[in-house]
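User: I'm new to structure prediction. If I give you an amino acid sequence, what do you actually give back? Let's try with this one:
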Amino acid sequence: DHRFRVMAGHEMASVKTITGTYRTTGFPSDIEPKKAIANIGKGSGNTHSSTESAPDRNLSFFGSLNYDYDSRYFLTATFRADGSTKFAPGNQ
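Assistant: Good question. You get back a string of structure tokens that encode the predicted 3D arrangement of the chain. For your 92 residues, that looks like this:
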């Protein structure tokens, strides 16, 4: 009358951020933002910069174990372990 149920899994994720910034001047102060963006090439002092982050990676393992004896006594155990590149080496 012993019954076991086991579930195990893992998850992996990787996120990389790319940011772009555009700047231009010379528009009238009362111009609507939509109109300024539509005509951004007509401004002066156009500059562009971009940054790219190193990817953040996560790895997780998880699971559970359910034990049932004679449909009378139950035991459940769960676990999870996570690792991330956001932490310093040795603490990931």
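You can read the tokens as a compact description of the fold. Here is one thing that stands out. Residues 33-38 form the longest helix (6 residues).
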